[in-house]
Design brief:
Elements: E1 5-7, H1 8-15, H2 19-28, E2 34-36, E3 41-45, H3 46-66
Antiparallel strand pairs: 1-3, 2-3
Helix pairs in contact: 1-2
Length: 74
């Protein structure tokens, strides 16, 4: 069974970014998260992470289509 919520550590590993970058995404609201429990542990819903990833793909496609020079060279 797939987990519904991920820790920020999980998100960092999935995106292959630092914990600081993950926290910045949450703080900015770019990656929606919830704070739960007495200690305020952050959790990101799997569907929100997938939606974020899809938004980043779309933004990248738009960026590339606007700036032909930004296309990767092979």
């Amino acid at each position: 069974m797939e987990r519904r919520f991920l820790t920020l550590t999980d998100v960092s590993e999935i995106l292959n970014v630092t914990m600081a970058q993950t926290k910045a995404l949450v703080r900015s609201g770019d990656l929606p998260a919830i704070k739960i429990g007495g200690r305020g542990a952050w959790r990101v819903e799997q569907s929100e992470l997938e939606a974020y990833i899809q938004r980043m793909y779309e933004q990248t496609r738009e960026f590339i289509s606007r700036d032909e020079d930004s296309r990767p060279h092979t």
